[in-house]
Amino acid sequence: MDAAQHESEPPAGLDEGMLAADPFAQFSGWLADATAAGLPEPNAMVLATVSGSGQPRARTVLLKKHSSAGFEFYTNRTSRKARDLAGQPRACLLFPWHAMQRQVLIEGAVSALTKEQSEPYFRSRPHGSQLGAWASRQSSVIGSRAELDERYGEMQRRWPPGETVPMPDFWGGYLLVPESLEFWQGRPSRLHDRLRYQRSDGGWVITRLSP
């Protein structure tokens, strides 16, 4: 990716001295910057997994919570990504904030959240999204759009507005616990800044990568 600014302009770089000691604080700051800049869906991230046959697969999902514990996202547990994670519980997250010439790449182990951990977020979803979780068997083959709409209509009749929608047992959250976080800042001539945090003896070591 080329930096957008002209070669003669002072580059807006990323120096080691600019980084927070804690990568989660650094991520929070960059996410806040992306939000303040008005980027659409700043919490959208590419989730990459590997299938049982070794096929890499990627899709965009939404980050729903982040803390020093890790990064949370939610999905149907019958989906391809859930099946991938059941067989190979490791993944990569990519936040592509192209308009700011920034990316964050996060790698680590993934574990499924319990029903008790997942329910608070499910309860916070709009009523229609709760029904949609019941109507869709994500990644399964369906005969037509009408089939999906019919299933959704069944859910609407079963749980009309005002009714409590139970969380499906085939739906829930996942937590990625990072082992490395790379912060990428675009620079002219493709000489980008890449600074990576890696876990080491309970702390974090920061190294610079060649662009």
Rough shape? elongated
Average pLDDT metric: 93
Reported by name, the CATH topology of the domain at 16-77 and 85-124 and 172-209 is Pnp Oxidase, Chain A
Q: What's the Cα radius of gyration?
A: 20 Å
Order of helices and strands: HEEEEHEEHHHEEE
The largest sheet, given as strand count, sense and whether it forms a barrel, is:
9 strands, antiparallel
CATH H level, superfamily name of the domain at 16-77 and 85-124 and 172-209: Electron Transport, Fmn-binding Protein, Chain A
**Class of the domain at 16-77 and 85-124 and 172-209, according to the CATH hierarchy?**
Mainly Beta
Percent helix: 25-40%
Distance between the termini: 11 Å
| Number of helices in the DSSP assignment | 5
Structural class by secondary-structure content:
alpha+beta
Topology (SSEs and partners):
Layout: H1 23-36, E1 44-50, E2 56-62, E3 65-67, E4 70-76, H2 80-87, E5 90-97, E6 102-112, H3 115-124, H4 127-135, H5 145-158, E7 171-185, E8 193-200, E9 203-209
